[in-house]
Design a protein that fits this description.
By secondary structure, the protein is mostly helical. The protein is built from four helices and no strands. The longest helix is centred in the middle third of the chain and has 33 residues, at 13-45.
């Protein structure tokens, strides 16, 4: 059997098909790995934005809406 695989001149159509599919699979995997490495490297180089964890300087509008309700239901304060 190894002699048959070493001599492509006597390969059948099915063997050529298997060889072609293996070559396509190897090329696809190589392209995916190349793109993955490129993506990882670009992510490593990019400067990340840090979240702003300081409290907001603007007043909380939700609290002021609840205070102006006067104890009524939500629908009444919005005119519904």
């Amino acid at each position: 059997m190894p002699e048959q695989w070493m001599n492509p001149a006597i390969w059948t159509g099915a063997q050529w098909l298997v060889a072609a599919l293996l070559v396509i699979a190897v090329l696809a995997m190589a392209a995916m790995i190349h793109r993955l490495i490129g993506t990882v490297q670009s992510e490593m180089k990019r400067k990340r934005q840090r979240p702003n964890l300081r409290p907001s300087l603007r007043p909380d509008l939700r609290k002021s809406d609840a205070d102006s309700d006067g104890g009524g239901s939500e629908g009444e304060s919005r005119g519904q």
